[in-house]
Amino acid sequence: MSMGRICVVVCGVLLLMSTAMASVVSAQNPDYKLALSKSLLFFEGQRSGKLPPNQRLTWRKDSALLDGQEGGVDLTGGYYDAGDNVKYSFPMAFTATMLAWSIIEFGDGMGDEGVRAAEALRWNTDFLLKATAHLPNTVYAMVGNPYSDHNCWERPEDMDTPRPVYAVNTTHPGSEVAGEITAALAAASIAFRSSDTAYARLLLSRAKQDELAWGGAWLNKATNSQKYQKYVDKAIRNIKLMEEATGYYNVDTEFSWDNKHAGTYVLLSQVGHYKTEAQTFACVVLPESPTKTMKYTPGGLIYKTRSSNNQVTGAVSLLALVYAKHLTQAKGTITCGKTQFPPSKLVDLAKSQADYILGHNPLRMSYMVGYGSKFPQHIHHRASALPSLDVHPSFIACKDGTPYYMSRKPNPNELTGAIVGGPNNGTDYFDDDRKRPAQSEPTTYINAPFVGVFAYFANH
């Protein structure tokens, strides 16, 4: 064999090896600042309403400019929470709470991205103020008909499906959405306190008009008082009584937009309450804990739910960092049975989850769109999967979008920063298929807690 041919073979092998090694190094050494930047850019792709002049994802245009009209109110703006075109106040409010908590705890390390984080939060809270403008008797909980909306594959800019408004009130109660909005507005009032005091006062004033355990805990923090503690205690007693009656104890590992138990305890532990319950959270999620109940995939990702599992991954990771920060400042430790752990173990847990999302996983792929060399290309997201108005200015009717939905071509518009639902059902396998929304659909409440997580690791 000639030296030339030997070089071709050997050099080719070395090139493949170096490429593979570069992929591994990239996955094992994530760029958290870049991930933070992209995670905030994602929210611009979810905007509803009249878009601002500084909109960076320019393939998105104005949409849903008459929202609320069917109910005689103004409900324009806010976010589409996922890959469809309905606006839900409940998950939108949780998104706001997570963004606000990220800013409160780790905003000092966001640098220039702190401005973007505040913009993402304000786009949300401006809508929540509209949704609660008719308190004390009415909170608007949803805009759009989910059945007709989900029957279409249509750009938000083309929407011609009904846009009814749904409200909770004295005859149709819905304490959950009211309580989450309370928490969101109270948390956001803290986040804006130093930059916009008038806006912060408005948010806090509106938040005080409704109270629940999670909302009450945030009102305590926002008012720097224990004014709402009796109400919080009563609500938590009711939670515990319900758990005893049903035999379903879900405080341990639950933290998502529809269950705030662990989050409430960690938040309250910062002011000296419910320390035992907060410790329980840490003990059931730490992989090394003798009392661990949290499940993990073989590759190390938190596994809690079949659908959109990364929402739990992000929320638990943020919660772990917040609690670790508190324990470090209080010079505390985590006691699980007869074993003690330093707060840094919670930091290690959060880092393992962030790194998994950014590519340190068995598939060596990022679950954030636009991050790394390998990421989801066929996400379940109407605006991303259909051609933009710039490319296809003609109207695309409800069913005319179906061929784009069925296509195996990558989405034409990159929803940069979107974190998708994640691997399938407790495995490390991911099918990049927009027809599998449980794995391929991004949501605002997946991204929001990761904003704080990436901000923390960008500076540690």
Automatic annotation (TrEMBL):
It comes from the Eukaryota. It catalyses: Endohydrolysis of (1->4)-beta-D-glucosidic linkages in cellulose, lichenin and cereal beta-D-glucans. InterPro entries: 6-hairpin_glycosidase_sf, 6hp_glycosidase-like_sf, Glyco_hydro_9, Glyco_hydro_9_His_AS. Keywords: Carbohydrate metabolism, Cellulose degradation, Glycosidase, Hydrolase, Polysaccharide degradation, Signal. GO terms for molecular function: cellulase activity. Residues 32-209 form the Glycoside hydrolase family domain. The active site is at H380. SUPFAM superfamilies: Six-hairpin glycosidases (SSF48208). The keyword Repressor does not apply. One of its GO terms (biological process) is cellulose catabolic process. The keyword Amino-acid biosynthesis does not apply. It holds the Pfam family Glyco_hydro_9. Residues 1-22 form the signal peptide. Its EC number is 3.2.1.4. Transmembrane segments: none annotated. Gene3D superfamilies: 1.50.10.10. Belongs to the glycosyl hydrolase 9 (cellulase E) family. PANTHER family: ENDO-1,4-BETA-GLUCANASE. This is Endoglucanase. It comes from Zingiber officinale.
